[in-house]
Every structure is written in C-alpha cells, then in structure tokens.
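Give me the fold.
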Amino acid sequence: MELLPLKGQHHVSAITANAKENLHFYTEILGMRLVKKTVNQDDTSVYHLFYADEKGNPGTDLTFFEIPHAGSTYEGTNSISMTSLRVPNDAALDYWLNRLTEYKVEHEAITEDSGRKAIHFRDFEGQRLQFVSDEHNKGVAGGKPWDKSPVPAHVGVVGLGPVRLTVSRPDVSARVLVEVMGFREIAGYTEQDQTIRVFETGEGGTGAEIHLLERNDVQRERPGRGSVHHVAFRVENQEELMKWVDHITASGMPNSGFVERYYFRSLYFREPNGILFELATDGPGFEGDESFETLGETLALPPYLENQREQIEANIKPLHTAKKD
C-alpha cells in the first residue's frame, strides 16, 4: 500500500471562552474571514468557529471551540505551544508590528525563527501565536486573503505556518513523525538557549513544518482558554485517508478510525506524548451548504445534525455575524 505524503498543515483547533471577543479579534484585528459558524459535532452545545483565507482553503484554517467556563491555561510541556500565521513577506511584518501596537495586542519585536522573520504575539486569552514571513518560502503555497477584510490583502494572513510542539520526550514524538507519518527532519535552530528540531512533509516550506522543542523543567500543560486542542494535517482525498486509517492502525497506534465531518473527513490519534493529531481531507470544503459570498453568516449544520437545529440553537448563545457588504 503506497501512501502519498501528508501535504502540510490542514487546520489548528484551539479553545476560547468567549466567542464574541474571539470573533472580534480574529476578524476585525487579524483580518481573517469567518468561513464557517457551526458547532462541535461531538458536543453540539459548543460553537466551532473557522477563520481562514477567503474561502477556507485547506492549510489556512485556525478554528476555535467556545467553552464558556474554560479555566486558565497553565502552560507546560506535552502541548501544542505555538501556532504560526503566514504573511506574504518581510514588509508585511512591519505593517503587523504597527497594527498590533495600535490595537494594544501583547507582542514582541521582529525576530528570526528558523531563517524566517517572525513576530510572537498573544490574543486576548493568551493564545500563543506568531506571524511568520513567507518571503523565502519555496514549499506549499499559501491561500488568498479575503478582499473584504479590514486588513489589506497584500499584507493579510495567507495560511498556517509552522506548528510548535513542546514535549518531554522528543525522540518518541520524532519517531512517530518520521517513521509513521513520513516527515523528514531537516534542520534545527536555537531560541533562548533551547534547541528546536524542524521536521517537514510533502513539498515542505512554511506551511508544512513541525517544530519540536524539549522541555523537562515544567509540568504537563493544563489546557484551558487560550490553549490548542489539536493540529490537523492535509490528506488529498477520502481514498487516501482510508489508506492512512489502515496504516495508523497497523502501526499499533490507537485511533478514531474514519470520522465524517461533512466539510472534510478525518482520522484522530495521539502521539506518545499525548498530543492529539488529526489527518483531514482537502475537501469537500465549506461551500456545500453556503455560497462563497455568505460564508460564516448563519449557523451552518451538517445534514446529519439538521434535524436537531431547534434544540441546538436553543442551547447556544446567539453570535451575531453581520451581513457583509
């Protein structure tokens, strides 16, 4: 059975305690488009919000589950400890430095991570983020910013960049990345006297890297608002996903098997340090139940949840997503 390489990041899913403020931050400040307002299919009392490029191209989605009573995150090891957002070039970082200052967003100065210029910053709940420049990217292409965004398209977010994992046992995580998932270890760099190992898949580049950091001096992270739930990687289609189901099962790793998510199809499993990975198909995408022009404007439910709409809407707090011009 021949497996095609994973194509890079598909999406990152995180936790917020306040959907209204989350919507404001990611659409009005970061300029991403809300391409889908739906619910967590495993707990329909919880919003699931998808922010992305103009139509939610795979590799551009940063998603959030709203858990209103989520406590604080106690940061630590065995966690997804940094999510990167790609911007077109180095000049775009100057724009973002000014914008983050203007909106009083906690941030650092422009630095360099693994040969790319970057800005580390946090959202209103302490979510660990960075803008990373695509100036020298030769790998996976980015998406296309929405032309109705409050942020000019030429400096807008074009997708997900490297995702950092902080783990207590890096060698076992590396073994899964390389021997099971087909990543290649390509480099390393130092940040604050800590060595970070770089792995890539598929075409490589900014949108196809995992950065692995060892930390044994802190406790296991206790997740809450401002933490990341899981990272997903791109698979071409459902046929290819089924091959991965067989492959992951044959490797001896417990997994979810095939899961229907309507907007894509998925497989979930945990690597040995307990971090949740998902493999997700590139399609069908977000325009199956909404037009491109109206993405994210109403509560979208997959067909198998539509008969529960009245109950679902009664159990979630209204979230107003204004009509776009």
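The two ends are 49 Å apart (CA to CA).
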